[in-house]
Specification:
The protein is mostly beta strands. It folds into two domains: 214 residues, no CATH class; 175 residues, Sandwich (Immunoglobulin-like). Helices cover 2% and strands 38% of the residues. β18 and β19 form a beta hairpin. The N and C termini lie far apart (67 Å).
Length: 407
């Protein structure tokens, strides 16, 4: 197989890998557990300079360029397979895809299978003007056995990154594209070639790509996340496909990022045309109501609701149901975007979610169904929100508040 590299440079690139969630103190762009692995050209590999050693991402004239720059980023909505391997300037509310390329450089195929291959991303959780996402690749029998690279997301204003739960994917020539667990940003996700068993043979035909998505938020006062699902399903998404008559559930997560207490937090949702609020469907989930409590008003889509006072790092969730109706749907795909906003201590934060409705008209073909990115993580109540000194102030909680949200 020593000539395989020359014949497959045009093949589809893919990515992968890492493991323990500890960032080495000497991380500076790319690195590895050998403190600087050598680079090889394809001609070196063909000449047998790698020998029997299993090494990842060390080819300098690879189909992705220098494989040591194996972590990159792009705007998720950008269709072209063009990745920025160094840094990218973010915009508020924009979603970005982070790619990690994985390639066992051995030319010996199934005779040199890397084992225990895992990918991990370290996604910063602080508020700052610059965030470095580090991608790790690990293999128990490779030399070196750990590799890392980074990409920098920056802005002129402070922002934080929200990992889009359920967005992790792995793509290769055998599996196509498969979902990876959200553990890819904590303990790591196991990769593989024909199954996710940690085993990847050597050569380009076995390479792969791991991707995750993150969303940039320039509001530093609060985190507000808006998700949606078809009623009766379990996964929360950035968008869902629905039809007229379907019931959908919206979820709004509020989390206080201020050092001070956020008082009388108001949540308001603006429904688009063709979506109707279902009466008596608004629930609040927080420290006091981990299983949810039905609110005795129906003002979440009008004047808003007061969900109480929240200490730093504490969150709460508002859920309600809406129905897809036919008012002025156009032929083809209709994106029904609705915005949620929070108001606390004079600060306003917003986020949105979408319902895609396809309308078939006479003499016109049915439009293709848009892809939905599943978000399995957004429905976790109080995730990491409650510490020893954190609480929701009961005295500040009003289910039927007369306070109005600022318009």
């Amino acid at each position: 197989m020593n000539k395989i590299y020359k014949s497959v440079l045009a093949a589809a690139a893919i990515s992968a890998v890492a493991t323990t969630f500890v960032i080495p103190a000497n991380v500076n762009a790319w690195g590895d557990s050998s403190n600087g692995r050598p680079s090889y050209k394809i001609a070196d590999i063909d000449a047998g300079k790698l020998g029997d050693k299993i090494t990842f991402n060390s080819i300098s004239d690879s189909k992705i360029g220098d494989e040591k720059n194996f972590v990159g980023a792009k705007v998720s909505s950008q269709a072209a397979d063009v990745w920025n391997a160094d840094e990218i300037t973010v915009k508020d509310g924009e979603t970005y895809t982070i790619r990690l390329y994985v390639h066992n450089n051995s030319p010996k195929g199934i005779n040199k299978i890397a084992e225990g291959v895992k990918a991990t991303f370290a996604v910063p959780t602080a508020v700052a003007k610059t965030h470095t996402i580090v991608g790790y690749l690990d293999s128990s029998n490779a030399t070196p056995n750990r590799y890392w690279d980074e990409v920098v997301l920056k802005s002129n204003d402070e922002f934080y990154l929200e990992y889009v739960g359920g967005s992790a994917r792995y793509t290769n020539a055998k599996l196509g594209t498969v979902a990876l667990p959200d553990a890819v940003i904590t303990s790591g996700a196991t990769l593989g070639y024909d199954k996710l068993d940690g085993k990847i043979p050597g050569c380009y035909q076995y390479d792969g790509v791991v991707t995750i998505q993150v969303k940039a938020h320039q509001s530093v006062t609060a985190k507000l996340s808006k998700t949606v699902r078809i009623k009766g399903t379990t996964n929360w998404n950035e968008s869902v496909n629905a039809k007229v008559g379907d019931l959908v559930e919206y979820q709004i997560e509020y989390k206080n990022l201020l050092n001070e207490e956020a008082k009388n937090v108001m949540i308001r949702d603006i429904l688009p045309t063709n979506m109707e609020y279902v009466q008596n469907s608004t629930y609040l989930f927080n420290q006091f109501y981990p299983n949810g409590t039905l609110l005795d008003n129906n003002t979440v889509t009008t004047t808003g609701i007061n969900i109480g006072n929240y200490s730093n790092g504490v969150n709460g969730f508002v859920r309600f149901t809406a129905k897809v109706v036919e008012k002025d749907l156009k032929c083809g795909n209709n994106q029904l975007v609705n915005w949620a906003s929070s108001t606390a201590n004079g600060n306003v934060t917003k986020d949105d979610a979408s319902v895609m409705v396809a309308k078939e008209c006479k003499d016109q073909p049915t439009p293709p169904t848009p892809e939905v990115i599943v978000n399995t993580g957004a429905g976790e109540i109080m995730t990491g929100a409650l510490g020893a000194g954190s609480m929701v102030t009961a005295a500040g909680y009003y289910i039927a508040s007369r306070k109005k949200m600022n318009k």
